[in-house]
Each structure stands twice: as structure tokens, then as C-alpha cells.
Amino acid sequence: MLDLAAPASARAHDRRRRISGRHAARRAHAAPEQPGPEPRLAALIPAHNEQDRIAAAIQGLWNQTRPPDLVVVVADNCTDDTALVAEAHGAQVFHTQGNTHKKAGALNQAIAWMLPHLDDRDLLLVQDADTVLNPWFAETARATFNRRVGAVGGVFYGEEGGGFLGLLQRMEFHRYAWELERTGGKAQVLTGTGTMFRARVLREVRSARRAGVIGGGTSYYSLASLTEDDEMTKAVKTLGYRAMSPAGCAVTTEVMPTLGKLWHQRLRWQRGALENLRDYGWTRVTARYFAQQFLMGFGALSFLVYLTFMITFTTLYGWPGFSPFWTAIGLLFMVEKTVSVRRAGPRAVLVAALMIPEMLYDLFQHAVYFSSLWGLVRRSEEKWVAT
Fold it and tell me: Which of 38, 171, 206, 232 is most buried (most C-beta within 10 Å)?
């Protein structure tokens, strides 16, 4: 039975509910809310056959400096022991009924079940089952909310492993975190790895969908999007709220171990982002996202033209020789590449300095972009592939 009044884990609630000064400083930009009763916090973890990873995700929540009042694992069409493992680690289990809409459908059922028990000021944390939150995530996110902030998303980092491909993904994630810090924690996307919502905002999203203000069905998460997290970001912003990702809200998530899995993951992300922009059209909120996609395409095309020119010229006439100007430009580019991944460790800095491995990784990303764009133009159906 759903019960937010009683503590869900005595051991978790005995932990200290403060964070260190350095993490408090990271969230200092957030304006505090008006005084009021402490909002309750509930956590949802959508899971499909995650028996090997669900325990770590749940334990990460109990280890929070501000633990949730309730953790619910949303068992969606599971055929393994996900539910049993979740219950053994102190979580309640919500079983979906007849869901055919993957993660978005599972979350819609669970939110509809939970939200009537939450006040408008209460908080709902949605977290992927393959993710572990850092211990101060919940408290940092709670402190970031004010009247203008509708949701707070995590800053994701890649877990160890995955070989050289895993390292390249961790470097990519570190650069994203670096960019977030440089922009004051303004979220580009409310990542599914971990996002906290005000209950009132979720109610407003559903009302806006039902009123036709935004598309995606008549519930909370869109059923028409390949990337429900990206679409939810645009929905929250369209309603006039800010979406934030403060540095203290770090999460550790899995990396794709093979090129095949990475291809399907990134193709879904990219195609979903393009389709969301098509569906929303040009608005005050989406203008920046359209510009980002244009610059991404322009950069990818320019890089391909440059490589083609250099290969053709070198083949026909030999190496063009040393150019002080272009060498200086290249050195500046290398410095930026290495500085932006310095927190990922010395191996990441070395790989960034070599440049060639990341150029090949960029070519892979460009192939994903053009494949997604071509599929959008052809209106081909992009099927969801488990990664």
C-alpha cells in the first residue's frame, strides 16, 4: 500500500541530512523557496528485467543525505526477479498493467497511481534502473527548486568499464557536465538517469496535453516520442518553467559496451530529438534547440568536407606542409579538448591530446546524425531497440 507518511527505511533516515560546504557552494545560484512545510519526496524507478542492477539503484536512494520517503520500483512486463530483489531492498513494487508503450507508458501508470497522494509542493524523483545517484543528489535538487524552477535533472557520468569505447563515452559525458557548469546549470535535457519534478508541474503537463497546448497524448509523459525525456524537457519549458542541472546532482550510468548498442542508443536519442522539434515547431523554447541542431549538422558537414579535401589533396600532391596559422588553431583546439576532460583522469587527457581517436568517434556521431536526419525526411519508422 502506498504510504508516504511512514519512513520507508529506518537505516536511511538515520543518515546525516547535510552536505559538505563544497557541494553547498555548487548550488548557491538557486534562489530559496518561500518558507513552508518540508515537501515529501517519492522516487520512481521504471525497470524492465533489471534484476542485476536494481539493488544498486535502490541502495543509492537510501544512501542519500535526504533519503526519499518512499521508493517504488515500476516493474514493467518483467520476466525475471526484479520485483523480488526490489522488495528485498526496501522498495515497494508497482506492476504495470497491459503496458505496450515502454518506459513512458510505465511511468504514466505509476505517476497516475502516486500523484493523488502528493501535494502540489511535494517532489517526485524519476530514476533509471541502471543508474546510481550520488549521495547528495536529492538534497541538492531540493535546494535548487524555486517558483521558476519546475524540474531538476541530473548531470550524468559514465560508469567504469566498456574498454576504449567506454572511455570515449565517459569523456563525452564529462564535456557535457563541463558545459553545464559554464552555463550555470541550465539543463538542455531532463535526463532519464535522474530528474526531480514538483508534483504541481506534472499535473500542469497533463492538463496542457489534454487541452492541446502540447502534444504527446493525454497523460504525463509523451507516448509519441522516442525520447520521452527530451520531450518532457520541452513540455516543462513550454509551460514557463526553468529546467536545471546543478553540478551537485551527479549520477553514474552505464556506458554502451559495443558499437552496435551505442549506434542504436544514439540513433534513438538523435531521431527522437529531431522528431520532437518537428512536432513542437518553432517556438520561443525550441528556437535554441533548432539552432543547436543546425550547428551540429553544419559542423558535421564541414568536418567531412575538410577530411575529403585533405585526403584528396595529399593523395594528388603530397603533404601540404607546415602552416603556422593552422597549427596554432589546431593547438588551441587540442587545449580545449584536453581541458574539458581533465576531471575524467589522465587517460582521458592523453586520448584527447592524440585527437585521432576522438575524430573517429566524431565521425561515428556524424553518421548517427545524418542517418537520423535521412530517416526523418523519408518518414521511416524508427523502432525502439533495447540497449
Answer: 232
